[in-house]
Amino acid sequence: MDSVTQILLGASIGVAVMGRRTALWKSVMWGGVAGLLPDLDVLLDHGDPILNMIRHRAETHALLLLTLFAFPMAWVVSRIHNQARLYGRWLWALWLALFTHPLLDLMTIYGTQVFQPFTDEAYGLGSMFIIDPAYSLPLLVGVVAAFRVQNVGRALRINGWGLALSTAYLAWSALGQAWVTQHARQSLQAQGLPSAQLLVTPAPLTTLLWRVVAIDGDRFHEGFYALMDGDRPMRFVAHDRGATLAAQNADHPQLQRLARFTDGFYKVADQNGKLLVTDLRMGQEPAYVFTFDIGPPLQAGQNHPVAQQQSRRMNVREGLQWLGQRILGRDVPPPG
């Protein structure tokens, strides 16, 4: 999820765990810091945009390493505020704020390496978009209450309700994704299309509209389903994914990295003799967050050049207009 939401989650957890034992502003501040810390890996430059993408959400999001880090962090915080007797409570609060960060990231499709340093396999359920106001706003209300509501008991109750509502929304997103996946498989099978390799993710900012991608050899099929569509079968549009070009360059290390990181949801194109590789998981046709120019096909013994990112953004105004209409169940084609 976005860093602001992670800060809010950490702050809300800090308030819930510390309660009346310390000033609420201290709980908010240190919980928010713990919620943000794992995302500071974006400041690291690995010398290549593809490596930067793959190495994000790696060691700093490892459950074991964050657990170990919680012990010295709690010791420092408890000493800063002369609250050594509250070390155990600070440990509990900061560990939860750190630990829930990668757990929340697991709900997105990006890929989080929670089991580092034992494996670099990236996991992602994909039931949440990286920014979703319906999840973040309850947390924000709870954190604001910690500052603005003078009655501590009432502030704690509001914060608790914010945490409960946001957590319930996560559960809803997983259930919604499962239902849409079943409906998508039925629609694909009814149209004679394969459904074995299937991606179901929410549209930007909402879980009322979902994007579906099905891999079909040299093509991929993209469709959208809004909850307001009811039982209406999904409409899919086929696009070339450059499978032949990918097979011809299967030994390219950059292509191999992206193929593994995306679990096969990528496409390859030729642009003036150079290979363009696109992560199909984040974005929608033809606008994607992660598209990379990895240079010309490699010759034997040749080193690959540093990749160049060439993301294509959708027109925001057109995108929001389409999003609003599509959420209402109107089967209008997406921009582009």
Q: Report the count of strand segments.
A: 10
Number of continuous helical runs: 10
Major sheet strand order: 1-2-3-4
Largest sheet: 4 strands, antiparallel
Quaternary state of the chains: single chain
The topology string of helices and strands comes to HHHHHHHEEEEHHEEEEEEH
Tell me the overall shape.
globular
Count of domain modules? 2
* Overall helicity: 40-55%
Structure description:
The protein has 336 residues and is an alpha+beta fold. It folds into two domains: 3-173, no CATH class; 191-327, no CATH class. The protein has helices at 3-18, 24-36, 49-55, 63-80, 87-105, 133-148, 152-190, 243-248, 253-261, 316-327, and strands at 198-202, 209-216, 219-226, 236-240, 266-271, 274-279, 283-284, 287-288, 291-293, 308-309. The strands form three sheets. The chain has a four-stranded antiparallel beta sheet with strand order 1-2-3-4. A four-stranded antiparallel beta sheet has the order 5-6-9-10. Strand 1 and strand 2 (209-216) form a beta hairpin. The radius of gyration is 22 Å and the shape is globular. The two termini are 26 Å apart. The mean pLDDT is 94.
Outline of this structure?
The chain is α+β, with helices and mostly antiparallel strands and 336 residues long.
